[in-house]
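EI: anyone free to look at a 141-residue chain?
SC: sure, send it
EI:
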Amino acid sequence: MNKVILMGRLTRDPEVRYTQTNNTLVASFSLAVNRRFVAQGQERQADFINIVAWSKLGEFCSKYFKKGQQVAVIGRLQTRTWDDEQGNKRYITEVVAEEAYFADSKRDGTDNGSFDTTFGNMPGATTGSDFEISSNDDLPF
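SC: here you go
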């Protein structure tokens, strides 16, 4: 199984390019992912992970993700090689994104009824909702 789940901050705005063969959109960006533990007397360290997102997901990332934003990415780890202009063999390891989400907390304090990415909970039922909140008197047990 090859599955990677990351949450971190974008180190730069996503860069967009298109493949030469079939003109498919590819967005590339890097995430600064904090390490879990901090050595005593030292600052927290981060790993800088390269991410690529293809087609519609790449379009979404390039349109809505900005430098400094906290995002979550789910994907798979991939290693590839190529020869540079001088004939040297080059290697890169990157995450190919399959899903991407906003992970910043809301800043304006408004609730537009969307998914709360901070805690992963849906907001409570609102007026006009398909769900009704009933009292315990209506329950059959």
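EI: DSSP finds one helix and six strands in the chain.
SC: 👍
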